[in-house]
Design a protein that fits this description.
Elements: H1 17-24, H2 30-44, E1 48-51, H3 54-65, E2 72-76, E3 78-79, H4 82-89, E4 93-97, E5 99-100, E6 105-106, H5 108-114, E7 119-125, H6 135-143, E8 148-151, E9 169-173, E10 186-190, H7 193-203, H8 211-224, H9 230-240, H10 246-255, H11 263-270, H12 276-287, H13 291-307, E11 313-314, E12 328-330, H14 334-344, E13 356-357, H15 370-377, E14 379-381, H16 390-404
Helix pairs in contact: 1-8, 1-12, 2-12, 3-4, 3-7, 4-11, 9-10, 14-16
């Protein structure tokens, strides 16, 4: 990659420079934080709990439930690695359920067969910006006396929807690359009042993140805003491509939320409450949510879905409620396509996100998610945000079709 090559970044941070400056002020003290947290939770409703992250909410729920060691948790086979890692840190066994690449939903037949006497909990994820109705899955779990939790980290579509009443809890993320990001924080909607109250009591014992640390994070992302310029991003990419792990490694290090060498270190990082500055920014993002950008992003994804139908398998092409937070196409020879797209000025990648297939426990090879693993091994994630103009989007499509030809 030559110096100063123009390159469209793989992702577009869904936050304005004004919002980042607001976060970088880092105002507030512990008392402010307590008041802000209580106030915002009250506005969101009696079932809401604001946490440091979705990972923190998941850890907090498992800590509260205190399931017997060796209990099994059924999970969607595609998620971020920290979610099964947290479950395993609580002494639980994760049973993945393969995902249909065309719908990005857990296969219901495999899901039904995954329940065993040791099953105590289910966690299903909505993926790539889509959302499905969890009620059929919740009904299967309820017949066995098992609660279901939905991970909506990738599926936020505005403050008018906070998940399904058929679930024990719904988790929403406002992490750095998420829709309407506040550079972190999660909202957990917990529908069992007893479980919620116990979670609150444990949560109150956790330390509050220092505002200065959050302000530093906001300041770092002010610099990342420069990646919106293809010229700036191209210059950064030309240097980063020679660093450890190449461009993908650089991006991962830049946006990774919780780097941790061990599960104990990960849990220590998760077990805190958001700072007053974090909560204030979350409130600001919730109050100023832009449905127009979400609609434009969904429309751009649908345009790509239609135009690339013959170029490969669009992951989630038949997914319900598509908003295309991420857009991926499974092709033969993904590395060749990535190289040609980058040469043409588009930062396509196989590492656009940390999500990936879970490895089944070695003693249960029958649960290995082979279908989605094969599809994701061929997946190329494309720049698909509405801020990339239509002519450039068409040029990217032409490049993909030429490569296929």
């Amino acid at each position: 990659m030559s110096h100063m090559t123009q390159l469209h970044s793989r992702h577009y941070l869904d936050i304005s420079t004004t919002d980042l400056l607001f976060g970088a002020r880092g105002f507030g003290n512990r008392q402010d934080g307590e008041r802000e947290l209580v106030s915002l939770e009250a506005e969101l409703g009696p079932k809401a709990l604001i946490t440091f992250s979705v990972r923190s909410a998941w850890d907090l729920l498992l800590y509260t439930l205190n399931l017997p060691p060796g209990s099994e948790v059924i999970m969607s086979a595609v998620t971020i690695p920290d979610m099964p890692r947290i479950a395993e840190a609580h002494g639980l066994v994760v049973i993945p359920v393969d995902v249909d690449p065309e719908t990005m939903m857990p296969r219901l037949d495999l899901y039904q067969n995954a329940f065993r006497p040791q099953t105590r909990l289910v966690l299903l994820a909505h993926l790539l910006g889509g959302a499905f109705d969890p009620r059929p899955y919740a009904e299967v779990a309820a017949r066995r006396g098992v609660p279901l939790v939905e991970d909506c980290a990738q599926a936020y579509r505005g403050p008018d929807w906070w998940g399904s009443d058929s679930t024990l809890a719904s988790f929403f993320s406002f992490g750095s690359i998420k829709t309407s990001t506040s550079l972190g924080a999660g909202v957990a909607v917990v529908r069992n009042s007893g479980v919620l109250e116990r979670m609150r009591q444990v949560h109150l014992t956790r330390p509050i993140q220092d505002c200065r640390r959050f302000a530093g994070k906001a300041a770092r992302y002010l610099a990342v805003q420069g990646f919106r310029s293809p010229v700036v991003y191209g210059a950064v990419a030309s240097v980063a491509s020679h660093a450890k792990g190449g461009l993908d490694g650089f991006i991962s290090r830049t946006v990774k939320g919780f780097p941790a060498g061990s599960s104990d270190e990960l849990l220590r990082k998760l077990r805190q409450r958001p700072s007053p500055a974090q909560v204030a920014l979350l409130r600001r993002r919730l109050e100023t949510f832009d449905p127009g950008r979400l609609e434009a992003r969904a429309s751009r994804g649908e345009f790509l879905r239609e135009r690339l139908a013959g170029a490969g398998m669009v992951l989630g092409k038949n997914q319900p409620r598509r908003t295309h937070w991420l857009f991926a196409i499974a092709v033969e020879g993904p590395q060749t396509l990535i190289r040609r797209l980058r040469e043409a000025g588009f930062d396509a990648t196989q590492g656009a996100t940390t999500i990936g297939p879970i490895v089944a426990p070695c003693e249960y090879p029958e649960f290995e998610p082979s279908e989605i693993r094969e599809a994701m091994s061929r997946a190329v994630f494309l720049p698909a945000y509405p801020e990339m103009n239509e002519s450039e989007t068409n040029r990217m499509i032409d490049c993909i079709n030429l490569c296929r030809g």
